[in-house]
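Now read the record:
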Amino acid sequence: MFDDLRQRMAAKRVRPGDGRPLERFRWWQLFTGRKLFSLQVGETAYAVDVRLTGKQAGDDGMAHLFVNGRHQARSRMPAAFPVAGGTIQVAQSTVGLKRAHYVTTQGGEYLLTPDPRSVIGRRLRFAREHRVLSRWIAAFSVVALVCGLGINLVQLLEPILGVPPIVERFGRFESPIDLPVWVNVALGAAATLGAVERSWRLRHNWLDSLGT
C-alpha cells in the first residue's frame, strides 16, 4: 500500500520535457553532481540525466528522462518515470544517489547502466577490474560508517540524557568513551567518506543518512 502511494506521488511530480538533445557526459562534470544512466528496452533507448546541482537541478535536485536522445520528461526526486514495460525509479540521499533502477511490471528490478565516464561508472568499472581491492574498500566504508557513527553517538548520549527529568528518574549516564575533539572530527569525516563511497555503488540504508 505504501509503495503504491509513493508511486502515485512520484507520478504527480513528472513534468513534460522540452525536446532538447541529450548532452554527452564531460569529465569535469565528475565534480558538478551530474549522474548519467542508460537503459535499452527493445528498440527504445532511455537515458536518465540526474542533476544534483546547477540550473537544471532546480531547488532540490532533478532527474531528466531522455527517449532516443530527446528530453521527454523531468521530475523532482524521488522520481518515477513510466517507460515501456515498467518504471524508471531515481532517488537521492544526503550524499548522492541511492537508487537508479528499472522496475518491470512483473516486479523485476535492474540497475540502470551508468555512463562509464561518470563517478558511479568509474567505481563500478574499478570493482570489475580490481575485485579484491574493491571489496576491501567497500568493507572499509562499512567499518568507517559504523564505527564513526557508533562512537560519536555513544558520546552524544551523555549530554542528551543529562537533562534534569531523565537524571532524576534514571540517574546520570556517563559515556564510557571520551575522545579528543580532533578524533571525533576525524571519525565523523570517515563516516561521511564511507557513506559517499557507498553512494557511488548505489548502496544505502538508514546509517548512510546518519553519516552525513
